[in-house]
């Protein structure tokens, strides 16, 4: 697992560490890591000696990091220019060292550079870019040189990943100590480019703002059958999805569930004939009440919202079993008719809204703090919330949050959420905790989208097929 921490927690950890070290040690470590990464980029584009670097230097320590790194590069024969957002407020020690190493301060940007270093704003940023920093970010958007951001791209809201205004788009972000939320979540995350972490030796005691699963986590959580297993002991997932109008949703959620770890998939709904024909291993029934025993339910995709659908949702809500509620199930929850049934549940519930469904459930769209919004809805509904998006978020009612690092735009295709729901239900039925089931399903769904995209354009059926190739063996 990786994790990102909020600014206040990063500052507290830095303060505690700084108290044990000679002054300037942390900035020296940060600048050394930054200079190393700049040198790698410059070498990959030709040569280090004689190449040209432009530093954009702000008024705080982020600018200090850039100036010390610039000094190191100047000592290696790089022609380094520093453009200062405010010449009177540049980092004093950094500027002296930079000038002594042969760096130049410029008031006009050189016409040709091999690399731009964005040292305007780091974790001290407040609100949208202002003044000279805003002008520089706007101008930078029109240049073609690669950009390395120092700690975070300037202009992002570091704690939420929101973009309060224009921001720098980096090819690489060299970040210090730990990840910050803006590097992994929200509209800011894609602006960071490739994120490289420079170890400062920080010890984090605060809880992370958000966690990120890695392949090793998914492999550890994924249940494997052994010699004692049978189809029931591996878990049975039930699907109350699809309808006469939307048989595709039934097929796609079934395909998602079949890629999961359970020993059996049961389908209950009006698309039962086509499911039985196309997925012969699935045991089908027309209604939830006829389905037989399962260990978790998936309800909603393509179910429609008629009287029959309401009865099916009611049956799922009443079952003392983990349940995934998606799409039409969420729509039916919104009018409040089922609010008491949802609240009365003692078994775990996972809600999987996209932004539109989130807005209908919560009363307002996720807003600038997507993780915070998902946590609020999770606490309010006492459910795990999987908020879909390019960086899908999983939030639990007890305040834990995760963001999925594997998403890819090719997942944005009709029916892709149905596949996700089926897999999630299978993981729940196989005994994963609701948070782990949601995190693992989003992670593998993303990998499957990437794998499917390798052979061309992607349909949700392709995502389901590719799931089989990306699940742990
Ligand atoms: N702490 C440590 O141990 C270590 C920290 N390290 C480094 O320090 C960085 C944090 O440095 P920091 O605290 O000096 O803040 P920083 O991000 O440079 O910006 C503050 C300045 O920006 C300005 N400003 C703010 N918002 C603005 C806006 N919207 N638009 C325009 N201007 C704006 C604000 O000006 P003001 O609002 O006061 O006019 C203030 O002067 C951190 O990210 C990392 O790189 C590393 O060396 C490792 C060790
Ligand atoms: N731009 C994007 N990048 C990555 N993933 C995306 C993007 N847009 C949507 N997704 C993912 O695609 C899936 C869409 O699901 P959903 O909105 O339920 O669609 P449908 O109802 O058609 O199945 C979700 O897993 C979501 O996270
Ligand atoms: K920066």
From TrEMBL:
* Keywords from the named record: ATP-binding, Isomerase, Lyase, Metal-binding, Multifunctional enzyme, NAD, NADP, Nucleotide-binding, Potassium
Which reactions does this protein catalyse?
(6S)-NADHX + ADP = AMP + phosphate + NADH + H(+); (6S)-NADPHX + ADP = AMP + phosphate + NADPH + H(+); (6R)-NADPHX = (6S)-NADPHX; (6R)-NADHX = (6S)-NADHX
Question: Which residues are noted in the entry as K(+)-binding?
Answer: 62, 118, 154
Annotated YjeF N-terminal domain ranges read: 10-208
Cofactor(s) recorded in Swiss-Prot or TrEMBL: Mg(2+); K(+)
Could you list the residue ranges forming a coiled coil in this record?
A: none
What is the free-text note on the cofactor? Binds 1 potassium ion per subunit.
Which residues of this UniProt protein bind (6S)-NADPHX? 61-65, 122-128, 151, 249, 302, 354, 418
InterPro entries given for it? CARKD (IPR000631), Nnr (IPR030677), Ribokinase-like (IPR029056), YjeF_N_dom (IPR004443), YjeF_N_dom_sf (IPR036652)
The EC number on file is: 4.2.1.136, 5.1.99.6
User: Which residues of the sequence carry a binding annotation for AMP?
Assistant: 388-392, 417
Quote the CDD domains the UniProt record gives: YXKO-related
YjeF C-terminal domain: residues covered: 214-473
Oligomeric state and interaction partners are given as: Homotetramer.
Q: Which family does it belong to?
A: In the C-terminal section; belongs to the NnrD/CARKD family. Belongs to the NnrD/CARKD family.
**What's this chain's function?**
Catalyzes the epimerization of the S- and R-forms of NAD(P)HX, a damaged form of NAD(P)H that is a result of enzymatic or heat-dependent hydration. This is a prerequisite for the S-specific NAD(P)H-hydrate dehydratase to allow the repair of both epimers of NAD(P)HX.
Q: What is this protein called in UniProt? A: Bifunctional NAD(P)H-hydrate repair enzyme
Source organism per UniProt: Hamadaea flava
């Amino acid at each position: 697992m990786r994790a990102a921490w909020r600014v206040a927690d990063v500052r507290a950890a830095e303060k505690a560490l700084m108290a044990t070290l000679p002054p300037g040690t942390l900035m020296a470590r940060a600048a050394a890591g930054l200079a190393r990464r700049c040198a790698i980029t410059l070498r990959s584009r030709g040569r280090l000696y004689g190449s040209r670097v432009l530093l954009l230097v702000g008024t705080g320590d982020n600018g200090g990091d850039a100036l010390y790194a610039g000094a190191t590069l100047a000592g290696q024969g790089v022609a380094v220019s520093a453009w200062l957002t405010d010449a009177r407020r540049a980092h004093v020690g950094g500027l002296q060292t930079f000038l002594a190493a042969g760096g130049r301060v410029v008031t006009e940007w050189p016409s040709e550079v091999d690399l731009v270093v964005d040292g305007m704003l780091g974790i001290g940023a407040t609100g949208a870019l202002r003044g000279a920093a805003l002008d520089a970010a706007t101008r930078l958007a029109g240049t073609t040189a690669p950009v390395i951001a120092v700690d975070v791209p300037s202009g992002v809201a570091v704690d939420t990943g929101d973009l309060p205004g224009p921001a720098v788009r980096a090819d690489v972000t060299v970040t210090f100590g730990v990840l910050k939320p803006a590097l992994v979540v929200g509209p800011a995350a894609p602006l960071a480019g490739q994120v490289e972490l420079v170890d400062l030796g920080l010890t984090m005691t605060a809880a992370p703002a958000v966690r990120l699963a890695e392949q090793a986590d998914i492999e550890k959580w994924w249940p494997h059958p052994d010699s004692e297993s049978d189809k029931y002991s591996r878990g049975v997932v039930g699907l109350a999805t699809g309808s006469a109008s939307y048989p595709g949703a039934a097929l796609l959620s079934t395909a998602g569930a079949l890629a999961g770890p359970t020993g059996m998939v049961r389908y209950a709904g009006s698309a039962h004939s086509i499911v039985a024909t196309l997925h012969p291993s699935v045991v089908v029934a027309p209604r939830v009440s006829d389905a037989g025993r399962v260990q978790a339910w998936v309800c909603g995709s393509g179910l429609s919202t008629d009287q029959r659908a309401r009865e099916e949702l009611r049956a799922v809500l009443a079952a003392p079993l983990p349940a995934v509620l998606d799409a039409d199930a969420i729509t039916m929850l919104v009018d409040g008719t089922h609010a008491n049934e949802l609240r009365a549940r003692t078994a775990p519930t996972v809600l999987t809204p996209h932004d539109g469904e989130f807005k209908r459930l919560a009363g307002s769209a996720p807003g600038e703090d997507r993780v915070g919004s998902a946590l609020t809805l999770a606490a309010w509904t006492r459910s795990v919330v999987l908020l879909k998006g390019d960086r899908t978020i999983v939030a639990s009612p007890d305040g834990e949050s995760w963001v999925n690092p594997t998403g890819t735009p090719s997942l944005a295709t009709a029916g892709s959420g149905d596949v996700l729901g089926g897999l999630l239900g299978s993981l729940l039925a196989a005994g994963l905790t609701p948070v782990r089931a949601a995190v693992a399903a989003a992670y593998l769904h993303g990998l499957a989208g990437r794998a499917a995209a390798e052979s061309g354009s992607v349909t949700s059926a392709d995502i389901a097929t590719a799931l089989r190739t990306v699940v742990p063996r």
